[in-house]
Design goal:
The structure is a single chain. By secondary structure, this protein is mainly alpha-helical. Helices cover 46% and strands 0% of the residues. It is built from 10 helices and no strands. The protein is elongated and about 80 Å long.
């Protein structure tokens, strides 16, 4: 609504909302730079953006890679380092890109077709919930997953006792997802966090005692 806005007004506008560049005719490089620093998606409204601007955009929000035609490897890498999920928009990503993506967020594994064992392993080490996106995961991967986050036990069909034990040792509350837990599992759970007692039906006196010894709030 401003005719011929001054540089100062343009600057205020894009620093407040990067998308405002859409309404600025022939913005200077400085204005373009400020816009993508505020919102990487503003790259959409810049004609023939330089590599420097593209890199600022994907470092601000990795998903901006979707708006860049034929992005270089360096841009792709910057994008997945900002958000692993940006790999969804990279066709046939290299091993290095896959690795960077799952190291940023393990659940980005969802968007990697046919990942190698090494990529799967890196993914569950970063986020145990990534086990959800692995077909027929090995015991080794399952164990890494529950040791990273005990609640991942919920995603493993018919988990072994060893997996259940590893899960409750990581988080006592994982016992919520274990039907009919044994005394040993109950003990490990309340020793990890006494208030996990909440999810143990009809606990014995010994389990109750262990729970309140670990955390008085278990009472």
């Amino acid at each position: 609504y401003i005719t011929n806005p001054s540089f100062e007004l343009q600057k205020i506008a894009v620093e407040q909302i990067g998308y405002a560049i859409k309404y600025i005719t022939n913005p200077s490089f400085e204005i373009q730079e400020l816009a993508v620093k505020e919102n990487g998606y503003a790259i959409k409204y810049i004609t023939n953006p330089s590599f420097e601007l593209q890199k600022i955009a994907v470092e601000q929000i990795g998903f901006a890679i979707e708006l860049i035609p034929n992005p270089s490897f360096d841009l792709q890498l910057a994008a997945v380092k900002q958000s692993g999920f940006a790999i969804e928009f990279i066709p046939n990503p290299s091993f290095e890109l896959q690795k960077a993506a799952v190291e940023q967020d393990g659940t980005a594994l969802e968007f990697i077709p046919n990942p190698s064992f090494e990529i799967q392993e890196l993914a569950v080490k970063e986020n145990g919930y990534a086990i959800k996106y692995i077909t027929n995961p090995s015991f080794e991967l399952q164990k890494i997953a529950v040791e990273q986050i005990g609640f991942a036990i919920e995603l493993i069909p018919n988990p072994s006792f060893d997996l259940q034990l590893a899960a409750v040792k990581q988080s006592g509350f994982a016992i919520e997802f274990i039907p009919n837990p044994s005394f040993e599992l109950q003990k490990a759970a309340v020793e990890q966090d006494g208030t996990a007692l909440e999810f143990i039906p009809n606990p014995s006196f010994e389990i109750q005692e262990l729970a309140v010894k670990e955390n008085g709030y278990a009472i």
